[in-house]
Structures are given as structure tokens and as C-alpha cells.
Amino acid sequence: MKPSIAVVVTDRDSDELCEQLKLALPGVKIQQWPHIDEPESVVFAVLWQHPPGTTASFPNLKAVTSLGAGTDHMDADPVLIGVPQHRIVTDSLKQLMAQYVLLYVLSEARHQLGYYTQQHSKTWQVLEQAGEPKTIGFIGLGALGGFCADRCADLGFNTMAWTEQSKHERHPCFHGDTGLMKVISESDFVVLLLPMTEHTHHIINSKTLSWFKKEAVLINVARGGHVDPEALHHALTSGQLKSAVLDVFEQEPLPQDSPLWALDNLIITPHISARSDNLQTAEAVVALFKALD
Ligand code: GLV
Nearest 5°: phi and psi at 80? Predict the structure, then answer.
């Protein structure tokens, strides 16, 4: 049986990705979930929120890749222990993420809502205040965080980051609990862009929320599990934190009965900050497949 690729993507349409893979690899069978009729021929799988147990039906798997940047769905799959794992962070993914982060940083830093509100009462009043540029603290400075931090620094913002160990020539990095406190307490915007692990679950909780400046904005574009939703709700309703932007949630879609929907100082988007581009993702999958021994 000829080796094949399985595309197991459950939360979005993968037709275009599969078409691109068929064009680029004409001799290779592309099996698109849920129509996997030859599981034993699968040597490489593209995974995104794959149903538990799917990978167990691929006895000849040589490697897997996440469709995107996050790997939490692969980390949670015991079948993949010992299987080489990749992730795909394309230029497009980085650019979209930077656009999203800058959209909310700029609209807050340049008082977009304030001027729009003033316009309705024909008010001509400068809201900008002279002073230091705003500081953006990145919690996580990997491929996505580093790219976003570079773009923010290009536009004149101060940047700093909390990382596990790594240093960066452009963005000062701090580590451990004291480093986390320093970055959070000195930032006007705190951007979460770190992987989801047992150590980073609820990294934003009632204790770490108490370190934020009252005028700060939290932007979570990583995983919902990084933020304790009850603690965030309390911080946003008690005046401890000015506002937040959440693109990711512990449960997606965010349940209808979540109290977060009702908050005026919270912006909610449906996990769209950076969605993988089919063409660039297909190119990356082809390269990974061709590199299999
Ligand atoms: C999106 O959530 C990604 O991990 O690429």
C-alpha cells in the first residue's frame, strides 16, 4: 500500500488545504477526515482538534504536524508519545497575529473609541497625554510573540517579555515568578502568546491580576486555559483591570450563559486572531512530508 497523508481537521473546512496537497503531491493519497478508508497507509498526519483515538488507527505513522502554532491537542494525545511532532507557523500566521494585537493596542493607545464617542457630541478635545510611550509586555516570546513584539517595537512602543529561559536582543526578557510580576506590573498592555502547559494553566489568576496596572489591558491570543475566567470577571467588574480582549476560551464556542458576554470592558472574538493560510500551510506540509525518511 502506498504511503498516504491524513488531514484530521475538525473545527473548520479543510477542502482547500486538501486540494493544495493533492496538487503538490499528485502521487500521494490525501485522506480527509472523517473519510479515512485506509488508516494503515497513513505515514503523516495533519492534526487540528483531532477526535481522541483517531491517531491510534494509524499504525504506520512516522510523524505528525499541528495545522497551526498550538500543539496542546497533540500534547494531550498519548498515542503520539515518541512520534516526531511539528507545528506550522507560516509568515501569514505571524502577520495576522501581529495585525490583531496591533488593532487592539492601537485603538486603545490612540483613543479610537474616545474620539468616536466625542464626535457624537461635537467635542473637539485632545485625549492623548504627553509622556513615555506605552509598554507592551509579552507573556511568551516564541515565533508568534517575537514577531508581534518586533512589530510593536517598530511602531515605537516599549516592549518587554516573560519567557521560561530565553533571552532576546531586542526585547528585555524576565523569568520566574518575580519576572512575571515585573512584566505584568510595568506593562500597559499584557499580551498572552505562550504555549498551554500544566505550568501555564491559569497563569492569569487572582494573584497575577492584582499585579496589573489599573489602566492596563489584557490581550489573550494564546489559549483560553491561560486565564481564570472568574478571576478575570472579578478584575473587570471591580475596577482592578481596565479592559481585556479575549480571542480564546476554555470552552469554545464560549457558552451562552457565560457572564463574560455581558461585560462592556471586554472584547470577545471567536478564535480568529490568526487562522492558518491554506496555501502556505500546504507548502509547509509538503516540505515536512518530503523530509520523512
Ligand atoms: C491557533 O490557535 C493556532 O494555534 O495556530
Answer: -90, 0
**Cβ–ligand 1 contact at 68 (below 6 Å):** yes
What would the CATH number be for the domain defined by 4-90+276-290? 3.40.50.720
Q: Which CATH architecture has domain 91-268?
A: 3-Layer(aba) Sandwich (3.40)
Measured distance CA(196)–CA(173) in Å, rounded:
19
C-alpha closest to that of 102 among 151, 66, 61? 151
pLDDT tens digits along 2-33: 999 999 999 999 999 999 999 999 999 999 99
The domains spanning 4-90+276-290 and 91-268 adopt the same CATH topology = yes
State yes or no: is 234 an active-site residue.
no
**Ligand 1 pocket, 70 CB below 6 A?**
yes
Q: What is the pLDDT of residues 182-197, one digit of tens each?
A: 999 999 999 999 999 9
